[in-house]
Amino acid sequence: MRYYQIAPTITIHGPKDQLTYHHQSALPVGGLVTIPLGKKQAAGVILKEVAKPNFATRPVGQLIETRPLPAHLLQAALWMSRYYIAPLSSCFQTILPKGLHKTRRQIKLADTSNLINRTSFVLNSQQEAAVKTILKNSGGTTLLRGITGSGKTQVYVEVMKRTVETGRSGIVLVPEIALTAQLKSQIESSLPGAIITHSSMTEGQRHLIWRQILHSKKPVVVIGPRSALFSPITNLGLVVIDECHEPSYKQENQPRYLALRVARIITESAGARLILGSATPSVTESYLAEATAQPVALLNRPAIADALPAQISLVDIRKKDEFRRHRFLSDKLLSSIEASLGEGRQSLVFHNRRGSAPLTICQDCGWTAVCPSCQLPMTLHVDKHQLVCHICGRRLDVPASCPVCHQPQLVHRGIGTKLIADELAKLFPSAKLARFDADTAAVERLHTNYQDIYDGKFNIIIGTQMVAKGLDLPLLGSVGVVQADSGLNLPDYQANERVFQLVYQVCGRVGRLARPSSVIIQTYHPEHPSILYGSRQDYDAFYQWELPRRRQDYFPPFCYLAKLTCAYSRENQAVAASRALADGLKQRFNNQMLVLGPAPSFYEKLGGRFRWQLILKSSKRSIIQEACRELVNNSRWTVDPDPAHLL
């Protein structure tokens, strides 16, 4: 009889997340098996073989898959559980597909190959140098920093091609599902048969793709958002994280992992290379690359030698003479759209707020429509004639009169993507418009309509930040930003950086080809460094400006952070609990850790619960983790030892 330590993939109540079972024959470490758990059967992962325990054990059921999970995924799950202080079961739920025990009928997956016409591409000298730098770093991380349009994708393709030639497989992560089809088309000529996986697929589709990867006997290339990092590749040789600065690589649910950090663990375990690619890598990543002598490959000129830089204009929203034709779309922006339409080219209009109007207010008594659960302003959606809370999703009918003073003087203020689309439809009635944001119906989303956008079937594209992430549209002639500085005043140490990255990336959607193009940036703060350096696409200047501010305020990369948030139905309970924890942490860790707060969270009330938070700072990661472990079994507290933001 043999005995095995097995981790159930469903949450179990108790101090242990690993249980001992027995089986008559040898089973592989990493094997997926069925196990009895109470009166039910559950899936489990074999972690190791152990000696016979001094207590009775239950038998293992059957193997779910004949092939075990790769060792690097086992190591990743165990590391995530320790580092992010998360139940091991939640880590395996993240790594494994749903419905492991189900028998799936074979279905034909959509073929997204050859969407883009690509001529054979010859690497320029900078790209060749970047490839050599990456290949020389045989088992580590390389930061690939290249301006927009410099051909980072071709570097990825070349390194991936050489990886596959050695018999090893690779993964390419993208920040948005919409970019999966674009990237597959770009690499199809060199690496045919790349596999796409993402959350918009059905449970059955994702399970079948997962099994295809697990049982593949040939090298595979997998493309997808952050979840693709856990593809069960047996002989992993390369992981690429494109647009590595994007916050979408952080998971906000348990386990709250950052894909960049987990990718380092996976590639170290597998002996694989890791490429972090971006035109605007985070200040922290750039600083760490310098401090640790990590290889950095630079691409500072366009891949197409005769590409014409875009003409970039800043429009001061405070100057009303810039808005003679429309109240929030400047004359320059409208003229640039007209010019693009006249040339048969496309325009992209970006605004990072969805809906029609973010504020509904009574002009008589000042009543404001707020969510009953979250106490936050509800956004008007004219097309559905509803007020929607963008935090909890609650929907209410728009009142005909004020519910307090009963007067009919309700006004809707602010700008959202739906309002922008409606106004542009009135101004350009013959143009075909497409809007892409979180409210867009599934059949109308960006990744399902990418081919039509690429082919120029839409004249004007309106959207939130998803349209600013790496899209390559050859027919794009003009880009407009309705309000570039909307994020500058957020109470987060990365607010300046986020605005800079967004402006830089939006400007980079044009200026890639040998055609004139324009960018119009509307802002209340045209003199702000984030706006100035972003519009100039000057990463080094922004980095040199931002880094001393981080050092002075003691924020990453000069410390480690953790965010602890409690939630109670009564505010005085949340205040008392957070104060008690803050006092205890200050006494215990004294000079080793700085405790900020307690203070109300940015979203102070969610789902009817009051939320208060503490921010922990320390120069030692071990101190942060030790403090966080005190709350492992406390359901009132949410622990994020690696927060992407402080909101």
- Distance between the terminal alpha carbons, to the nearest Å? 53 Å
Structural class of the helix and strand makeup?
Answer: alpha/beta
Number of helices: 16
Largest sheet: 7 strands, parallel
| Average of per-residue pLDDT values | 90
Assembly level: single chain
What are the segments in which pLDDT stays under 50 over at least 5 consecutive residues?
A: 110-115
CATH architecture of the largest domain: 3-Layer(aba) Sandwich
Strand content: 15-25%
- Here the CATH topology of the largest domain equals Rossmann fold
Taken together, the total number of domains comes to: 4
Radius of gyration over C-alpha positions, nearest whole angstrom: 26 Å
Under the CATH scheme, which class of the largest domain?
Alpha Beta
Q: What share of the residues lie within helices? A: 25-40%
Name given to the CATH homologous superfamily of the largest domain: P-loop containing nucleotide triphosphate hydrolases
CA-based shape: globular
Q: Give the strand order of the largest sheet, numbering strands 1, 2, ... along the chain.
A: 8-9-7-10-11-6-12
DSSP strand tally: 27
What does this entry show, briefly?
It catalyses: ATP + H2O = ADP + phosphate + H(+); Couples ATP hydrolysis with the unwinding of duplex DNA by translocating in the 3'-5' direction. This protein is α/β, with parallel strands linked by helices.
What do you see in this structure?
This protein is α/β, with parallel strands linked by helices. It folds into four domains: 2-95, GIY-YIG endonuclease, CATH 3.40.1440; 125-299, Rossmann fold; 311-354 and 416-551, Rossmann fold (3-Layer(aba) Sandwich), CATH 3.40.50.300; 560-640, Ribosomal protein S10 (Alpha-Beta Plaits), CATH 3.30.70. The protein is built from 16 helices and 27 strands. The chain has a seven-stranded parallel β-sheet, with helices on both faces. Strands 13-23-22-14-21-20 form a six-stranded parallel β-sheet, with helices on both faces. Strands 3-4-1-2-5 form a five-stranded mixed β-sheet. The longest helix is centred in the last third of the chain and has 19 residues, at 571-589. The radius of gyration is 26 Å and the shape is globular. It starts with a strand and ends in a 7-residue tail after the last strand. Mean pLDDT is 90; it is low at 110-115. Zn(2+) 1 binds at residues 362, 365, 402, 405. Keywords: ATP-binding, DNA replication, DNA-binding, Helicase, Hydrolase, Isomerase, Metal-binding, Nucleotide-binding, Primosome, Zinc. It catalyses: ATP + H2O = ADP + phosphate + H(+); Couples ATP hydrolysis with the unwinding of duplex DNA by translocating in the 3'-5' direction.
